[in-house]
Design a protein that fits this description.
alpha/beta; four-stranded mixed beta sheet; 3 helices; 8 strands
């Protein structure tokens, strides 16, 4: 029986740059940064300090997970900014929005009330977009669902 999600992949264009972005601007901690086997791929995982059971693997498209053609297509999609990579929870969306904006994080929209919580949407340094959400305990159907991410 499946008990939880332990690892999720975030596709990035550059692991060093992404590692700096996620640690210095979002405040995640490094869990692993190593090369798997002699001459193997680099394995970088990060996570929220208060959520040790879930890590994000920062992966660059290419071998051994993708053939060259697929890797190039994935890099193009990442750079285009069309990939949504997930949602981060926060207990204060406005404060995190202000802190992260001051650090140079690109937001697609400022915090707005949605039926599920207060949400802002930002891009990482590769172009993938993420939701930053302060969830409500109960769905508020009077709030707008909002528009598309662009």
């Amino acid at each position: 029986m499946i008990t939880n999600l332990r690892l999720a992949t975030v596709w990035v264009l550059d692991q060093d740059s992404a590692k700096a972005f996620f640690t210095e601007k979002l405040g995640l901690e490094v869990r692993d940064d190593m090369t798997l086997g002699e001459g193997g791929m680099r394995w970088v995982t990060l996570g929220a300090r208060d959520q040790p059971e879930l890590s994000l693997a920062l992966m660059v498209p290419g071998p051994p997970t993708m053939d060259p053609e697929s890797a190039e297509q994935m890099r193009a999609l990442i750079a285009k900014g069309v990939l949504g990579a997930g949602a981060f929870s926060t207990d204060d969306c406005q404060a995190d929005y202000e802190r992260m904006s001051a650090l140079g994080v690109e937001f697609l929209h400022a915090p707005e009330k949605r039926p599920y919580g207060i949400e802002a949407v930002f891009r990482d340094d590769s172009g993938c977009w993420f939701s930053l959400t302060q969830p409500f305990e109960k769905l508020d159907e009077s709030a707008s669902w909002g528009g598309s991410v662009s």
